[in-house]
Amino acid sequence: MRKKIIAGNWKMNNDIFQTTDLLNGLKEKISSSEHLVIVCPPFTSLVVAQQLLKNSPIKLGAQDVSLFDSGAYTGEISVGMLKAAGCSYVIVGHSERRQYHGETNEIINKKAKKVLDAGLIPIICIGETLDEREKGITDQILTTQTKGVLADFSNAEVEKSIIAYEPVWAIGTGKTATKEQAEESHQLIRKVISQMYSWATAEKVIIQYGGSVKSENAKELLSQPNIDGALVGGACLKADSFAAIITAV
Ligand code: PEP
pTM above the 0.70 mark? Predict the structure, then answer.
């Protein structure tokens, strides 16, 4: 049985003071959970978050990582820095990184490898755009993305990784995929992983759904057999709404 993993991607929201308020609120509401709960604040809030989460079951993640370990890469943050700041998870390849920073499956694959090599766990995002869904090529896009982002992973590496299926048209739009649409895509992704590795491996991989998840739709989506958690954007920015998702599933 796969554990449910609920992660909150804060994106470019919350300075260190707002981080303190949000995490104190969240700690009060989530002092224990049968699910694994992760928060991914901006880089500047990681150290304060690490301090605040010391005696809490809530784990810490980052939203991106550099391809490089150190040196003349202005503005970049290495995986070693994230580890020292208390991160155990790193989101890679979010659709906003693909859209605004030109990240390709190849770059995302290299970033995910960096994260794994450092002993951290990547949350690797994939998902089709509205245009791709309307053209009827969702399966083709998800197959290419899955193969691309997992290229050259060992069995152990793929089993450790988390995949986040996030249909781009559902991110921040209030339009959630139906449970049938989401389950169908999750099934496909798991099938592609099974063809690359084996069913035994594919069965172990956590595949989260992301795209306008809220407490009202979380239970229905996460009770699908292949949906193992959620990557939450907007609804993770308030302790009440994030905690309501965690307790709803
Ligand atoms: C996201 O950005 O990963 C996301 C799923 O956002 P939202 O929940 O706001 O759609």
Answer: yes
